[in-house]
Amino acid sequence: MTAPEVYLAPDNDSIPHTPTYSYDEARGTSVALVLDNGSGHLRAGWATDASPRLQFDNIVAKYRGGGKSTRTDALLVGNDVHVGGLMSSSKSAFEGGVVFNAATLEHTLDYVFCKLGIDTDRIYHPILMTETLCNPAYSRKLVSELLFEGYNTPSVVYGVDALFSYYANNGSFDAGMVISSGQVASSVIPVCGGRGQLQHAKRLSYGGQHLSEYMLKLLQYKYSSFPHRVTSEQSEGLVKQHCYVSLDYLGELRSLPNPQTLNAQTRVVQFPFETKWKTSEAEDPVEAEQQMQKRREQGKRLQEQATRMRLEKLVEKEANLVAMKELAQSKSTLAGSIFRRHLHEAGFQTEAELESAIKTTEAAVKRSRNRMEGTEEPEEKKIPSFPLVDVPDGDLTEEQKKEKKKQRLMKAGWEARERTRVAKEDEKKREEAAAKEEEDRRIQDPAGWLEETRNKRQDILNRIYARIRRKAKLTDRRSKESQQRMRNIASLAAEEAPIKRRRGGSSEDTFGADDDDWGIYREISKEDDSDEDLDATELNKLDEMLLVHDPEFVSENPFDGGRPFSNTVIYQLAHGTHAVDLAEPAIQSQIHLNVERIRVPEVFFQPRIVGLDQAGLVETVDDILKRFDPGQQELMAKNVFITGGNSLLKNMDQRIEADLRALRPFQSTVKITRARDPLLDPWHGAAKWALSQPVEFQKSSLTREMYEEMGHDYLVEHAMSNMVYR
């Protein structure tokens, strides 16, 4: 059986550096500055560039270093945040895929303009910026205010990133269907009549961010005591490197219990670990001897300290004992009131308490002396005396009668405890004799003893399995056992007990007054829990014996389907089908990806897996298609375009095509096209449109005059923009 492949855990060591460019090429020109402002990544460059000059994570973090006198504060943007190790404290201008923090966006744009080398007092170039589908007017208002008020931009054009990607691959706006899956959400946009029909667009609240979060949650459930902290960036890397879209999700899940299929499906991810080397003292005998001598001296000092403390306590106890004895002897020389005052000052209420404390202290002093001299003697068990129990009541006073009653109860309790103790000692002796006899038979006839023990164990297993089968059958209403139980209950209900009439006319229920009434319950519930407990105890005892003396014995849990835990599917999903030592640091630092590889991307098609009350991507596409006439449906189904970072998942296009073909009418044509570069095509499409359609680009621009006249949230609509409902 082939072992699964082992991969190294993803890391962020290869973060590219963001270079700084010269502004000379664009200085004095009116070339557009294209910004693909995504919630996860930002890509920026001039429209004349073949590819965006800047590509980095759209995040900002503040760095604080140095002491109080040499404090240095810096603002890190993009990939510099990874280099500075400030991912945990980073923040974004986006919330839920839309801009909500203009200050953070301003830091990001300052970084972009500086890296592009723009050194003028304002931005002299028109800006073409992408935005998400159905971007709120308030978010667009924040961006427009920043561009016009902060950078004095001459004009700005807004467009939907998914539609720009569609334009980059098609070069036109023929009828089609755009499926875009980004960082925060996935969207489906129909294209018809030369523009995106946004009134029919739909959004699924599941994207790349949720993929990594769900992967991380599944791994936390699977490895609750994993020794490493798996970061969100590592989880994202696991999704990109190892996840794929299953073409038969349920079929693959059913095949996972097969060890061969599981090994082929599993990818083992190895995280860093430290090997614990065992150092041998023989390598350096001088150092070993020095360490041993230090331990001896330390032990000797501890022993001397303990002896001194015991001696001090003993002296203190002896002094207290002498003081208490002198107090007791002073009774004969002092007056009664003076003696009682001294007694109370010493902390005793009565003379009996003083005598009891003297006896206790004497015993403690004697034990301490014997322990220090090494002649500790076993304590003799004192048999309590009850002198008043056998005295007739006529010879006793009222107080003595009460004391006699108390002594009688104490004697009964003591005798009961003695009987229990003797019974336990006898039982222990019988068990020791039986164990000795068992051991003698094992030594005299090992093979026969082993066979006999195996047979005993099998008999117990048969009883346990029979009990389990009977309980399972009782849950089946059509089984013979369940029907017999129902007949017993019916016979109980049919029996008419003699009814006693009360004076008021009401009947009196006498069920239970006769012991035979309860026989039906004994018939219904024949299983005795005590028998089950005895069988479990005896089974454990036999298992312990066989584990020691039978090299071929394998422990079997009858309550787990008769399989050891290492053979269960849960164990094999987490640790594989091969025998491994879970105590090894390398094994503890491994993650087995199998069911997670297909379960995480499956949410795109079955959102209910994570509790989303939404339709999957293919169902959404089918629902949108039904809103158009059959001719338009046919054209759109022939041109289904998928884009966005999540479209790079393996088999994504094949799964969409197969599921959509199953929903379309018979012999319908379905064609799925993946973007040439799902990550960069929104920028490429925007740059291509700005260069190839200058007139349309100029008409679609929001100028400063329009911004001041129409309002800060005004939008000039075009074929690839959002729509404004007024």
UniProtKB/TrEMBL annotation:
Basic and acidic residues compositional bias, start-end: 292-304, 370-383, 414-442
The keyword Acyltransferase is assigned to this record: no
Domain of life of the source: Eukaryota
Main location: nucleus
Keyword Cell membrane listed: no
GO cellular component terms given for this protein: nucleus
Family matches, as Pfam families: Actin
Protein name: Actin-related protein 5
Origin organism lineage: Eukaryota, Fungi, Fungi incertae sedis, Chytridiomycota, Chytridiomycota incertae sedis
